[in-house]
Amino acid sequence: MPANEFADKRDRRLLQQFVAGDREAFGELAAAHYDRLWAVAIRITKDPEEAADAVQDGLISAMRNAEGFRGDAKVTTWLHRIVVNACLDRYRKRQRTGEVATPDDLGWEAMADPTDRLSNREVAIEVEAALRKLPLDQRAAVVLVDVQGWSIVEAADILGIPPGTVKSRCFRGRAKLASELGHLRNHNPARRVEPDAATADTVAPTEQGGDQ
Amino acid sequence: MTDEPDWVTDLLRDLPDPPMPADVRTRLDAALVQTEVPRRKNRRPMILVGAAAAALVAVVLVVDPFAPATRTGPDLSVAGEPTLAQISQASLSTDTDYRAHDMGQQLKEIVGLRTVHQKGQRQAESDVATAVPPPPRSWAQVTEAAATSTGLAECVWSVPWDDEVLLIVDRGSYQGEPAIIWARQDGPVWEVVVQRPSCDAEDPAIAHQESVPD
Predict the structure, then answer these.
(1) Residue A18 carries which DSSP code?
(2) Does A92 contact B at CB distance below 8 Å?
(3) B8 closest CB neighbour out of A21, A51, A181
(4) What phi, psi does A79 have (nearest 5°)?
(5) CB contact under 8 A, B50 and A169
(6) How far apart are CA B193 and CA B174, in angstroms?
């Protein structure tokens, strides 16, 4: 059984147990998703405090609505949808009130894991910094699809937008990242690519710029 | 040709996930334990999973698309500009959720956005709802702003989004080549895209773009 299929079976079982009255089952379910939910929340909100609040709001909302889980999506997709929307709501509210924090602590010190595929931490920090500059909608799409590996369709389900819009936002986000991170183009010799002029010209049509 | 920067996706894919701090984990554990969950008996499960995205239907508004007499400029020419009323009326003939008033209002907003964009200003999407849109400009001006401020969009840009292209606004020419002007909606913002129609599904660029894994 593929790992994610196994995980979904486990998630459904825990959710059923919770709905049946086993309160601890939801805690176990949530804990299994803490890291993934945190990773997307911190990247969308760009603020540890906001990310923590959003994950908490989302999980409590999921807990209270567990009886309504219909089962036509994976449990993890359902959880991500609720938490991501909590993140987007919080970020937009904060933006409206002008309280946009810019913390730089993503917990990198705790990430000395030598098995990280991107071993160069400085590169990771640069990429994260560029990611933070993307407008909110593009950042959310890029984080879900390119960083977390959700499919376009799954990301569309999580964000509640058509798949084409996810593609469009990813395209625009990648183009901006390419412009921002051009100096990292050949940072990995195993993936070295020949330079061309195209990337510099990768400009999204009718771009607004800034956070949306 | 605009290209998908694969090396960027490589960088992103290899980005390690920041770990959830221990204090946040502890706080979440406590919050979940303390949360009261109302139990509802004999209640049918409510529909939590959202409805499918609205089917968006392309509307073609072409008025004698390449008639030389209607061309308006040396670089970008637009034939038979549809009015907001025409587009609003067209929207009524589709099965979309968009009401004529909304469509007209959104089109006014994009006109306003193009104006802002041309001046090089930055305006957050959230401002759109509160901004008082300036008087509508013509589609020729709008599409010219879109084309000249960002460069002509390549076919790779718009073809894959055919599930949500709402309006083929017009056809004309740009830098001596035929062009199609699309309008598509992304949240409250409308994008105007000037596209070379010479690109088609056989074009390698399209194949490349379509290779985005679903």
Answers:
(1) H
(2) yes
(3) A181
(4) -65, -45
(5) no
(6) 12
Per-residue pLDDT, A122: 82
**Model pLDDT for residues B18-29, shown as the tens digit of each residue:** 889 999 999 999
Backbone angles phi, psi at B184, to 5 degrees: -135, 155
Residues of chain A with C-beta less than 8 angstroms from the C-beta of B193: 205-206
pTM passes above 0.90: no
Q: Which residues are bridge partners to B76 per DSSP?
A: B174
Nearest beta carbon to residue B16 from set A30, A65, A111: A111
B6 near A CB under 8 A: yes
Please tell me the distance in Å from B64's CA to the nearest CA on chain A: 26
Q: Token digits for A142?
A: 């890029």
Flag whether residue A175 sits within 8 Å of chain B, measured between CB atoms: yes
Contact between A134 and A30 (Cβ < 8 Å):
no
Q: What percent of chain A stands above pLDDT 90?
A: 41
Burial (CB count within 10 angstroms: exposed 0-12, middle 13-18, buried 19+), residue B211: exposed
Residue pair B159/B209 in contact (Cβ under 8 Å)? The answer is: yes
Q: What is the mean pLDDT of chain A?
A: 79
- Indicate yes or no: CB of A34 within 8 angstroms of CB of B20: yes
Interface list for B 151-170 with A (CB within 8 A): 151, 153, 157, 160-164
Which of B31, B126, B161 is closest, CB to CB, to A167?
A: B161
* Pick from B171, B196, B172, B168: nearest CA to B182: B168
* The amino acid at A141: A
Provide the 10 A C-beta neighbour count for residue B4: 21
Tokens linked to B9: 């996706």
Two structure tokens written together for B86: 């025409």
Averaged pLDDT in 10-residue chunks for chain A of 212 residues? 75 91 90 94 92 93 88 90 92 70 48 50 88 92 94 91 84 87 73 40 34 47
Short-list B103, B106, B78, CA closest to B90: B103
CB of B175 closer than 8 Å to CB of B192 = no
- Interchain CB distance below 8 Å, A206 and B114: yes
Is the ipTM value over 0.90, yes or no?
no
User: Which residues in chain A touch residue B161, judged by CB atoms under 8 angstroms apart?
Assistant: 164-165, 167-168
Cα–Cα distance measured from residue A131 to residue A142, given in angstroms and rounded to the nearest whole number: 8
Question: In the structure encoding, which two tokens stand for residue A134, read together?
Answer: 């993307």
Residues paired with residue A53 on neighbouring β-strands, in sequence order: none
